[in-house]
């Protein structure tokens, strides 16, 4: 029987690469995408294209009520998206979303246990996002321990694995790996502050990291920027 | 400034008692209630009455998509609610809901960090519900450790406390404590399998524990049973 994996699919470059990795390792995938009134709501459309691209059979979309998260990434928030700044990799960025990965992983765990999943895949990365507490390896270890204590699967020794295969990769390494696995990055999207036609701002943290990654990978960037 | 607490309020006897305890300890409360297509959807109405009873200003209601949980407690599930059985306190009951408290606490944590909460209050109990892995003290300890690693508040040393003040109390002790704090238990509801008029079945695990609790507390049970 094929192993079952739950992949958190935002429609971004990282989660697309993770889906390709999990599929390449033989997992039968279910995708989960979260809608949280984010400025990058357009990512959901990209997630749907990726689901098609990868032939994923089940796509769960979860709406998080707007009262839950308060951050620069969420519409209607009065914090603006930082632009053209030096990305300081040690302090916690303003774009931190309280409890985001905790909530996303908890959904994946609850759903994953219901469908008998073997593993959860998440595109967290401690190189470019070391400032986010919920992107660091010690957080994932603690989450796994908690999940093993708090689920039937965990208590019975069939605990669901949590894999963050991009954890120690730089952006250009992620891109090269994805290309070797057949990812079409024109179907992905990174901008925190996109235009309505789907083009990217080109100067938020996420666009800066993406552009730099393609440049360092020596791969043409398929993203449409409007600067 | 008053301490802020998030209370998980199901409309049941336990969570009502927890709200009274937290209020008595001086917390300014926000209530969270989860809707998950459960057979006891009627609890939400009871939760709303309790919110009024306690003068809680903010009541967040979260809808969990029906795809997430698969259990005897969820409508449309093909597992039936066990009736009139001996409650075996060591094995994991059929009414276990995968990842339920993990998901609920994660919501409370994300929302709580956004609003600057000091603590989360949950009515978990290891006496009557020792079979549920997500009701045991070691799970809550692991959740707190995970939360301290994965949130800004935790990393900065202002970690949100997680209190389960009913953990070691028997049902009759919970009822006596609640009555001493002014809880009106006619506003609460426990049945896993209620009738449409809001009356209780009287013979599911939850009704059995409730009836036994009132009897042992020597307090009249205000619940309407139809057996």
Walkthrough of the structure:
The structure is a homodimer of 227-residue chains. Chain A is an alpha/beta fold. Chain A has a single domain, classed as HUPs (Rossmann fold), CATH 3.40.50.620. Helix content of chain A is 35%, strand content 11%. Chain A has seven helices and five strands; from the N terminus they run E-H-E-H-E-H-E-H-H-E-H-H. Chain A has helices spanning 13-24, 43-54, 100-114, 137-150, 152-155, 171-180, 205-217; strands at 4-8, 28-35, 58-63, 119-121, 161-163. A five-stranded parallel β-sheet of chain A has the order 3-2-1-4-5, sandwiched between helices. In chain A, strand 2 (28-35), helix 2 and strand 3 (58-63) form a beta-alpha-beta unit. The longest helix of chain A is centred in the middle third of the chain and has 15 residues, at 100-114. The radius of gyration of chain A is 17 Å and the shape is globular. The termini of chain A are far apart. The model of chain A has no long low-confidence stretch (mean pLDDT 89). The A-B interface holds A 60, 62-63, 65, 67-70, 92, 96, 98-103, 105-107, 109-111, 113-115, 133-134, 136, 138-139, 142-143, 145-155 and B 60, 62-63, 65, 67-70, 92, 96, 98-103, 105-107, 109-111, 113-115, 133-134, 136, 138-139, 142-143, 145-156.
């Amino acid at each position: 029987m094929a192993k079952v994996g739950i992949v958190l699919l935002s429609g971004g470059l990282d989660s697309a690469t993770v889906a390709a990795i999990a599929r390449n390792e033989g997992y039968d995938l279910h995708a989960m995408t979260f809608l949280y009134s984010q400025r990058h709501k357009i990512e959901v459309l990209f997630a749907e294209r990726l689901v098609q691209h990868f032939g994923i059979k089940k796509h769960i979309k979860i709406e998080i009520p707007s009262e839950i998260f308060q951050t620069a990434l969420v519409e209607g928030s009065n914090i603006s998206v930082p632009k053209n700044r030096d990305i300081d990799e040690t302090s916690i960025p303003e774009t931190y979303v309280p409890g985001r990965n905790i909530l996303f992983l908890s959904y994946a765990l609850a759903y994953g246990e219901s469908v008998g999943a073997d593993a959860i895949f998440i595109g967290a990365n401690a190189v470019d996002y070391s400032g986010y507490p919920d992107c660091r390896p010690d957080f994932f270890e603690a989450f796994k321990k908690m999940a093993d204590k708090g689920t039937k699967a965990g208590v019975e020794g069939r605990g669901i694995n949590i894999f963050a295969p991009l954890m120690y990769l730089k952006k250009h390494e992620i891109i090269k790996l994805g290309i070797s696995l057949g990812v079409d990055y024109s179907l992905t999207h990174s901008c925190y502050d996109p235009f309505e036609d789907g083009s990217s701002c080109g100067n938020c943290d996420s666009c800066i990291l993406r552009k730099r990654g393609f440049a360092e990978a020596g791969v043409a960037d398929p993203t449409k920027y409007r600067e």
